Amino acid sequence: MRRLQAFKFELMPNGEQQRDMRRFAGSCRFVYNKALALQKENYEAGGKFIGYVAMAKHLMEWRNGGETPWLKDAPVHPLQQALKDMERAYKNFFAKRAAFPKFKKRGQRDSFRYPDPKQFRLDQPNGCIFLPKLGWMRLRLSRPVPGELRNATVSFNAGKWCVSIQTEREVEPPVPHATSVIGIDVGIARFATMSDGTFVAPLNSFKKHEARLRRCQRAMSRKVKFSNNWKKAKARVQRIHTRIGNARRDYLHKATTTISKNHAMVCIEDLQVRNMSRSAAGSIVAPGKNVRAKSGLNKAILDQGWFEFRRQLEYKLAWNGGWLVAVPPANTSRTCPACGYVSADNRTTQEKFACVECSYEENADVVGALNILARGHRVAACGEPVQSGRSVKQEPAGAI
């Protein structure tokens, strides 16, 4: 079977290469925004959606025209990829997978992509990579890159340039070494509670850095916008956000790797995190209730990374020959696993579960995990799909 996998490394460019990469990222951002504006104008005029082929002709006009001759300085393939990204954003919007495309802002996820492996070369023994119009560049090659090169994405975040290299290679069909089946109930007090009674404590990376982040954001708000001191303060804020994300990502990778290697089938709840973390502020006409408490709950939910936890479990279990089963979450913490009685009165406190019908007592999170496991067995026994249907890759296609 063929496996797609991405490897991300930090680049070490010189001053000239840094300036060129900023210009290339700016050119791709300009092309994306100009194409999006053209799509909006065309729609308002009653026209149909402009596909990639027609939009690529506009790109040639922009490159050869007198208004934007500097577009010729950037490689053409990353500019074409910007058009494809815009088309993909529209398709996701039409399929109701994402919101309407927005204009890109300078300094937010600046990146550009080389889609053809013939355009770049990777010298692993010397820890260097060759990129068109940039030349050879050193990178922190922290691990080997196996497989055939597919594409390379250069990105800038928190003062550092990185390259994400996607590869494809042939691997043996996975043979599961584990035979156990487990149910997992995710939460806030306990990040993940297993049906065998064990649990994983939460990291709460945002909560640990929240006070420092607030101080840096307050200091940034007092600076004159776009001044040198404001840019320095903004860089400090970005570094804190990067540290929070890296800590959470590392924590999730370690947890999901351990779970996927030790269990053949994992059952989880099919949670809609976006709906669960929706604001309760309401509107002026119909203001919400308990807004501050709900805001704190939303912050704690988003700090856990439940969706990323599920995504990593999905592809890692597939790599190890395992299954991931997502079950409906309704009443998992209110159903007695002993007698099946469902009642809100069974949940006496946040932690304690006591069935009013048969007097069964257990930790509420463990009860939820047991019910999730039982539902997962039913889903697997009925022959229903156990995967969500998303592509099983280490990173989404085109991810940075």
UniProtKB/TrEMBL annotation:
NCBIfam families linked to this entry: guided_TnpB
Designated name of the protein: DNA-cytosine methyltransferase
Lineage: Bacteria, Pseudomonadati, Pseudomonadota, Betaproteobacteria, Burkholderiales
Domain Probable transposase IS891/IS1136/IS1341: 164-279
Transposase putative helix-turn-helix domain: residues covered: 1-48
GO molecular function, one term: methyltransferase activity
Alphabetical keyword list: DNA recombination, DNA-binding, Metal-binding, Methyltransferase, Transferase, Transposition, Zinc
Domain spans labelled Cas12f1-like TNB: 306-372
